[in-house]
Prior knowledge:
heterodimer; A: five-stranded parallel sheet; B: alpha+beta; four-stranded mixed sheet; 5 helices; 41% helix
Amino acid sequence: xxxxxxxxxxxxxxxxxxxxxxxxxxxxxxxxxxxxxxxxxxxxxxxxxxxxxxxxxxxxxxxxxxxxxxxxxxxxxxxxxxxxxxxxxxxxxxxxxxxxxxxxxxxxxxxxxxxxxxxxxxxxxxxxxxxxxxxxxxxxxxxxxxxxxxxxxxxxxxxxxxxxxxxxxxxxxxxxxxxxxxxxxxxxxxxxxxxxxxxxxxxxxxxxxxxxxxxxxxxxxxxxxxxxxxxxxxxxxxxxxxxxxxxxxxxxxxxxxxxxxxxxxxxxxxxxxxxxxxxxxxxxxxxxxxxxxxxxxxxxxxxxxxxxxxxxxxxxxxxxxxxxxxxxxxxxxxxxxxxxxxxxxxxxxxxxxxxxxxxxxxxxxxxxxxxxxxxxxxxxxxxxxxxxxxxxxxxxxxxxxxxxxxxxxxxxxxxxxxxxxxxxxxxxxxxxx
Amino acid sequence: xxxxxxxxxxxxxxxxxxxxxxxxxxxxxxxxxxxxxxxxxxxxxxxxxxxxxxxxxxxxxxxxxxxxxxxxxxxxxxxxxxxxxxxxxxxxxxxxxxxxxxxxxxxxxx
Lengths: 433, 110
């Protein structure tokens, strides 16, 4: 047995520092998840390219004012990111040629190669005319699949091959309204949906905004640290260890949960109720590769050589968020009812009608994520499928990101604590101060 | 093996919300907890006083199987009786119950 690669204490300490600073500017626990997922996605390209696996494209879903943009903006200034406010229908390749100079306008696509495209507001994109939205999503699909060619009247056929990651923000309502478009390209995007703030967090948020004197300088410090962290990750070699058999099994099941949860179902009205009549379930292989890359990128962010429970929990959150919201809401009801749900309990929990809830439960049965169990005196009991129960039942509670880094930052074990060359370059290690 | 106390962990943070949060957690932990890392295992273990303290860590996202209460540690060590000199001896000591099951229970994930 060979010794495991030691965690990089300098990276862990800096990430701890980043979270501590983020705590000073936001009360939202989800913002910490968003920051880690954004950083991981933005630095994941080499990991995807390592084994020619599908790229990471991530959508952060949250209501207006929920810190999504603020968090994304902390990456401004990093060398491998390209910021856009939104996308328009000729964003990637333009046919425009300047009449006077005869020069074609610069295309965005080649500029993105090797980078991460950060889109502050995808809501604007979805507010375009239907044909424009379809066109952009169609372009994205071709780009994702590796080659893009566009016939223009002015420049002839323009071809580009460009590989890049994407992180974009959108509101839940916009995504829900356009889920039909998204399902056509859906398999390529992963989502993260933040948890709603509770009353205490809301009050803390008010306090932070009203009482913090040096908010601007804290945000600047945070941006500075994030840029430093990203540059370090992008320029340091990553000694990766393989995932354990147990973690591989979890990733496999998470990929299946995602693929099955996104099953496209066509329902028809049969004797007054809607019944699923046709379904199309994607294969879980692309999802598995994406989730594995996400896990590895998160591990590297933490200075770890392999995924741990912390990274897998974030991956689980992404999987549950990537399942259509209505279905995910039903699955979330098992948090409080791990042994089973009746239609009535579920309808009360998701605050929808019994008819609508029955249809959602039927869909989830078709997806093979839940199974109808024995009848009780209050009705049939639906339970999570046994192979997914441990992934569905645990509730999404705020993750303590700094506590997770404690052992690495505190580690004084000589085997792990000896500063490496890169640690010396970076200065002090093992402290969040 | 590396041991650190929760106080040492708190001292890593400058005064602010994170530090205040961990000071509150310290009181939920009954004042102290021990963070333990061992070579060849990527996850740290937490040693805490009792089940309530364990719960305080679990609700912050630490897996229950990573948190050992003193009672659970005592159960494990007590199951051996006198300190075993070999693994075979340890296995025998742990299996000496009427049902042939180990007579201790470690932490379990919910």
